[in-house]
Amino acid sequence: MEPAVPRLAPGASMMESGCATPVLMTPPSHSWAVPFNRPDVPSFDAISADIRECITTGQLTKGPQLAAFEREAAAAVGTSHVVGVSSCTSGLMLVLRAIADRAAEASCLPRRTEVILPSFNFLAAPAAVVWAGLAPVFVDVDPATYTLDPAAVERALSPRTGAILSCHTFGCPCDVVRLAAIAAGAGVSLVVDAAHGLGSEISGRQVGSEGFAQVFSLSPTKLVVAGEGGLIATDCPSLAAAIKTGREYGNDGAYGCDRAGINARMPEISAALGRASLARLPATAAARRAAADAYRESLAGVPGISFQVIPATCRSSWKDFCVAVDGPEAGLSRDQLRVRLADAGIDTRAYYSPPCHRMKAFAEATVSGSLAVTDQLATTLLALPMGGHVSPAVAVRVANEVRRIIVQAREAVPV
Questions:
Q1: Three-state DSSP class for residue 324
Q2: CB 3.0 to 4.6 Å from 276: which of 15, 42, 337, 339, for a disulfide?
Q3: What is the largest CA-CA distance in the chain?
Q4: Distances from the Cα of 149 to the Cαs of 166, 167, 191, 203, 269, in angstroms?
């Protein structure tokens, strides 16, 4: 169970204080009646034999579990290569470093050192850009899907653009067809932060084969869990080779090193857990869809509540289920709703508040055009509980509490 998180003071906004540091109250002392997340993991019996083999043989890294996991994941996402790494973040770092190295070798001027990406995203994405020696260029997202806006990408393109870094936000597939066409036209790479993507589909197929590379997360909130870990999916053999060397400090196998790397190896026990979890993905995704359907049906018509739009040809993994709260219509703000849900024992998250362009770490990044949608979402989106513990019945329970709170808030507003 996750620890209780500090709560906002009633009426305080996540965006009111400069870099969006919230005004905090004492966290609740009771346990959450409905935690925000519980990992959806296979039973211990499903992995105990593999873990025993890892321990008894002493093969704790770079062994048969990782090799098998990479083969099985490649078959699941439909790419020629999948490389396992220690996290989605380290995967993004290594992919972007490979792009930076290619740009450095190019003779054309100016150098292609900029990466266009959404500010409405987890901070690991721009952090990986900076770590790779590249420069983030933040653009806005689509107000319906919350994913990277292709039109904003086109406006931000310049001779310095080296890559486009998109994201399957909360599990909603981004417009990879249009983004890939934009990237091809500009002669740059499309990389997808697919942290939320296992369980997401486009036209009935698991996402992962689109673009230059997609990087998946296997952390405890995801549908496929390895404890910690990441998977890089690509059809580019040279990129796969570069990642395999890069995850091993840059060691070429003979203690030579042409380019410095990092220790981004996935342990064998994590790979064993990931394999068993991947085998359960269809059932896990179906359970998330059932919970999301229950949320949407139960919250339909609640004043001030709206939902992320999933394109008709796509399926979301529903890594997160978010609602947008229209404060004047609902009778209270997103942050006030969050506090009242916490008082009822229901844990939530405010995503992504603050957005990346308002973080000190990325103060020197370029902002291309208006980020009005990003700022609006950062002040209004609330992620409701989702995970292995959220059945349709639990989703209905949470939704009913949201409805009750909003009804009370609207009744308290003077006419």
A1: strand
A2: 42
A3: 77
A4: 9, 11, 15, 20, 39
Which pLDDT score is estimated for 88? 98
Task: Please state, in angstroms and as integers, the Cα–Cα distance from residue 73 to each residue in 127, 154, 315, 391, following that order.
Answer: 26, 32, 19, 27
State the Cα–Cα distance between residues 51 and 272, nearest whole angstrom. Answer: 7
Distance of alpha carbon 208 from alpha carbon 74, whole angstroms: 9
18: Cβ contacts below 8 Å, ≥ 6 apart: none
Cα dist. 271→114, 220, 221, 239, 283 in Å? 34, 14, 17, 21, 20
Segment 268-282, tens digit of pLDDT: 999 999 999 999 999
Give CA–CA dist 384/321, Å, rounded. 6
DSSP 204-247: TEES-SSSSEEEEE-STTSSS--SS-EEEEES-HHHHHHHHHHT
Give the sheet arrangement for strand 201-202, strand by strand.
205-206, 201-202, 314-315
- Residue 102 near residue 238 (C-beta atoms within 8 A): no
- CA–CA dist 87, 66 (Å, integer): 14
Q: What is the pLDDT of residues 84-130, one digit of tens each?
A: 999 999 999 999 999 998 877 765 556 889 999 999 999 999 999 99
Tokens of 259: 């380019």
Instruction: Count other C-beta atoms under 10 Å from residue 379's C-beta.
Output: 22
With cut-offs at 50, 70 and 90, classify the pLDDT of residue 9: very low
